[in-house]
Automatic annotation (TrEMBL):
Assigned EC number: 1.11.1.28
Domain of life, per lineage: Bacteria
Similarity-based family: Belongs to the AhpD family.
NCBIfam families named in the record: ahpD, ahpD_dom
Keyword line: Antioxidant, Disulfide bond, Oxidoreductase, Peroxidase, Redox-active center
Residues the record marks as active site: C131, C134
Matching SUPFAM superfamilies: AhpD-like
Gene3D superfamilies noted in UniProt: AhpD-like (1.20.1290.10)
Domain Carboxymuconolactone decarboxylase-like residue range list: 94-173
HAMAP family in the cross-refs: AhpD
Native organism taxonomy: Bacteria, Bacillati, Actinomycetota, Actinomycetes, Kitasatosporales
Subunit structure: Homotrimer.
The protein, known as: Alkyl hydroperoxide reductase AhpD
Main EC class the enzyme belongs to: oxidoreductase
Length: 177
């Protein structure tokens, strides 16, 4: 199992990450599609080759072709949107907030899977990318759709653990060079 491979690669000083990784994926109460779509989108967003290489095959095996593509689409569109909206929010000139984005985001309206799943994946990626505006937007859509806070927090936990595992493993690989 790729998850076991990834856990075994985590150094002893990061034992908490190893335990958390097993917990957020192995003991998740999310439905299979929400879980593995979140894992795949976050593995991509983590920018860690090791995390993506180890988790992608299992995600692919647990997702339909449509869900697999949608999770990758969530990571892609949020990579763009998180930079754009975070920057627009951080600029001190409020005029930028009134200007039209002018960026194509059609996949958000028609992701090819349940809207709630795509929104959850987008929220998790936005957590990794640190965009407060996108986090608020996706959280509000999810809450209006009846998604409970526990489910939202579960996706955020997956995002935080995969990001930390990726950062740790990539740093160790660099130090070993």
């Amino acid at each position: 199992m790729a998850l076991d491979e990834l856990k075994s690669a985590i150094p002893d000083f990061a034992k908490d990450l190893k335990l958390n990784l097993g917990s957020v994926i192995g003991n998740s109460e999310l439905p299979k599609q929400q879980l593995w779509g979140t894992v795949l989108a976050c593995a991509i967003a983590s920018r860690s080759p090791k995390v993506l290489r180890e988790l992608e095959p299992e995600a692919k095996a647990n997702l339909s072709d449509e869900a697999y593509t949608a999770a990758k689409s969530a990571a892609a569109i949020m990579a763009m949107n998180n930079v754009f909206y975070r920057t627009r929010h951080l600029l001190s000139d409020p005029e930028y907030g009134t200007m039209r984005a002018g960026l194509r985001m059609n996949v958000i309206g028609n992701p090819g899977v349940e809207k709630v799943d795509f929104e959850l994946w987008s929220l998790a990626v936005s957590a990794i990318n640190g965009c407060g505006m996108c986090l608020d937007s996706h959280e509000q859509v999810l809450r209006k759709a009846g998604v409970d806070r526990e489910t939202i927090l579960e996706a955020i936990k997956i995002a935080s653990v995969l990001q930390a595992v990726g950062a740790t493993l990539d740093a160790e690989a660099t130090l070993a060079e």
